[in-house]
Design brief:
Blueprint (H helix, E strand, L loop, with lengths): L2 H7 L13 H11 L12 E6 H16 L18 H15 L7 H9 L9 E8 L5 H19 L3 E5 L6 H8 L5 E10 L17 H4 L5
Antiparallel strand pairs: 1-2, 2-4, 3-4
Length: 220
């Protein structure tokens, strides 16, 4: 699969088949992503792969922390105050997902349950958790973003579905405790990884993207 095809076909999948992803396939994706560029080649990425019993323990702990309202992220992913045009894009993204799930605006309980599914990694058989040493500079976060995209595209090229998740990074202390991760490593994001369930309604919608002209300035 060429990179243009991978980019156009990749989507955030939120329902997975009960089909395991073997070690060799995950290793091959990581092996490709390790070629990602980074500032002065420091390669700041650290990855935890969770499957099976480890994933179940982690999911249980994350759901408990979420229900207890114990969010304490290592960094602020979203703005403290939303503003346009980003506020409207966020709104449309949420509406599209809830419409696909047939969850109405007033059905708060179903909305909460849909959100809790984040911490089960949407039923994916595997999850990748991305860490970076907090002593590194902000530039390393750019490197981590490139590394994450490399993982997503490598997975797509191998027929695997994925969903990048900022939600799990709301509870880094829980993740570090369950997986025995060093305290100096901050949790940036997770990636749900597996095979998409084609019959799931939540996988039927696609979010819109802005045209090139809306974000590009040409200087000739």
């Amino acid at each position: 699969m060429d990179v243009y095809t991978a980019l156009s076909q990749r989507q955030s999948i939120r329902a997975f088949l009960d089909r395991p992803v073997n070690y060799e396939l995950i290793h091959s994706i990581l092996n490709a992503a390790r070629l990602t560029p980074s500032g002065v080649n420091i390669q700041p990425w650290q990855v935890a792969v969770v499957q099976g019993d480890s994933k179940q323990r982690l999911s249980k702990a994350l759901i408990a922390a979420h229900d207890a309202g114990a969010a304490k992220p290592d960094y602020q992913y979203y703005p403290a105050q939303w503003f346009e045009p980003y506020k409207e894009r966020r709104k449309h993204c949420g509406l599209a997902m809830y419409q696909a799930l047939e969850i109405k605006r007033e059905d708060v309980d179903k909305q909460k349950q849909a959100w809790r599914n984040n911490y089960n990694f949407f039923g994916a058989p595997a999850a990748l958790l991305l860490f970076c040493d907090h002593r590194l500079g902000t530039g390393s976060l750019i490197d981590m973003g490139m590394f994450m995209q490399s993982l997503l595209l490598a997975a797509q090229s191998q027929g695997l579905a994925s969903c990048p998740q900022a939600s799990v990074a709301e509870y880094p202390d829980v993740v570090r405790e369950v997986l025995d991760i060093e305290p100096e490593l901050i949790l940036l994001a997770g990636i749900a990884l597996g095979y998409a369930d084609p019959a799931a309604a939540v996988n039927s919608y696609r979010t819109e993207r802005e045209p090139v002209g809306s974000f590009t300035r040409w200087y000739c």
